[in-house]
Amino acid sequence: MIGRRQQVALALTAVLAAGAACQNQNRESGAEGRSAPAAADGFTLVASGDVLPHTSVIERASFDAGGSGHDFRPMLAGVQPVVAGADLALCHMETVYGADGDYAGYPDFKSPPQIAQALAATGYDGCSTASNHALDDGATGIRRTLDAMDRAGLRHAGTHRTEAEARSVTLLRAGSAKVAHLSYTFGTNGNALPPGQPWAVDLIDADRMIADARAARRAGADVVVLSVHWGTEWQDEPDRQQLTLAQRLTSSATAGRPDIDLILGTHAHVPQAYEKVNGTWVVYGMGDQIAGEMYNGEGAQDPRGNESTLGRFTFAPPARAGEPWRVTKAEFVPQLYDLDAGRVVDLNKAIAEGAELEGVRDRIRDVVLSRGAGQDGLVMAE
């Protein structure tokens, strides 16, 4: 009988074939090469979870490059149609980059910088970078990472090389809208902020996050998106901090308009629920989009650590001036990182091609909908 991973590998060929058929120095870019924007000048936003290259992932990228350098593009090709099909696509780059062959996985990550090129080639426009691994190589790691992302044309939010950069707002173009992307983490694994650089990594603080969102709005943002690295590892349910912070952030408004339009969660290593809180969509955790073998708190290999979702949100412009942009459609795409194949798999496509992965997809679906998001209109994309 063909096993789960073999089923994935058999389906990959067909899946991949289908994938081929606050200052004036605000960092702003467009999203060229996209499909037509949503009706009435709205836009679609796609977001995905943690990119966490363990040693086995780095080795796979070396193999895919023929042993010369690293090529992460084949790893992401299975979800390229969904990512590139959005008007704006955001990822979470959890690790910092190394250089000149000095690469490492857990516990102190240093990833090959070619991963930035692969993310951009897949269709991502920007990534959040505030995470508990943001200081694995100190200020040098941050600088090296953001320099590589700049070279790849990949925008970033959450870590900074200079104080001026930390004070600026990352603005991205999506259809007719300007979208601000902000990013924060609960901590940095005990690594102290670099001397004289308290602004190097954006840390979770509700008052500061709300102030930043309001500053982004003053800087011209039509939509404000927060990426938040939070939660309890290996826990399907959001923890108290997530629930409390989500309530606080989504209840904040200025002149009757929400200060924050969407919250995207990372860190827990497993997919967590989506929920509409005070009228605003919150993704508590998208899971790990790319990771090697994952071991839970009991030391056992846990396949949930290779499961994740892509969130896809369709925004419509305000009917009248001063009103907020609104999410008119909320969807999720279940994903799996197949360890044997070294590929990110769109589970819906893999199942359609014959892979026996319904149990994995259904488990992800049940967790995502566990807090009643289905009643608020969230659907699993086909």
UniProtKB/TrEMBL annotation:
Keywords: Signal
Database matches in PROSITE patterns: PROKAR_LIPOPROTEIN
Position of the signal peptide: 1-20
Domain Capsule synthesis protein CapA as annotated: residue spans: 44-293
Xref: InterPro entries: Capsule_synth_CapA (IPR019079), CW_Biosynth-Accessory (IPR052169), Metallo-depent_PP-like (IPR029052)
Highest rank taxon of the organism: Bacteria
Family: Belongs to the CapA family.
Protein's name in the database: Capsule synthesis protein CapA domain-containing protein
Origin species: Streptomyces corchorusii (Streptomyces chibaensis)
